[in-house]
């Protein structure tokens, strides 16, 4: 038997599908807490270093949301930059994902402040009380 290589594209799609399903569990829980009958929009922020690929997340969203309150909803994604805090001078700055160096003093002793997260920013729902953003 020869070596079988995993399909990297399929693995990434499965990762994003799992991430999307987890996000939709939160979306549906929030929608139910507000007595919503439909979610029309989901807004998320995805850090550059999060490991989540926005294009793939958008691709799997319709499949993952089928049969949920978010079926047919629009998925809006904001890309969140990488921000570090310098341990030497204390400055927080936005940096390139592959260059976590202080933009003020050039020191490489930095701590990641943001850029590795995925945040559910808001959802827009429809309920008996009308349209709302929560």
Automatic annotation (TrEMBL):
A GO molecular-function annotation: zinc ion binding
Membrane-spanning residues: none
Protein name as it appears in the record: [NiFe] hydrogenase nickel incorporation protein HypA
Gene Ontology process terms (BP): protein maturation
Alphabetical UniProt keywords: Metal-binding, Nickel, Zinc
Record organism: hydrothermal vent metagenome
PANTHER family in alphabetical order: HYDROGENASE MATURATION FACTOR HYPA
């Amino acid at each position: 038997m020869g070596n079988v290589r995993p399909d990297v594209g399929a693995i990434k799609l499965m990762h994003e599908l799992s991430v999307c399903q987890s996000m939709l569990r939160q979306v549906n829980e929030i929608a139910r807490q507000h007595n919503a009958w439909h979610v029309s929009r989901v807004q998320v922020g995805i850090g550059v270093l999060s490991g989540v690929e926005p294009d793939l997340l958008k691709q799997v969203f319709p499949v993952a949301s089928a049969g949920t309150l978010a079926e047919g909803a629009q998925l809006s994604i904001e890309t969140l930059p990488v921000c570090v805090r310098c341990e030497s001078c204390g400055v927080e700055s936005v940096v390139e994902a592959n260059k976590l160096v202080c933009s003020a003093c050039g020191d490489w002793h930095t701590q990641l402040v943001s850029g590795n997260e995925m945040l559910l920013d808001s959802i827009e729902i429809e309920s008996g009380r009308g349209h709302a953003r929560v």
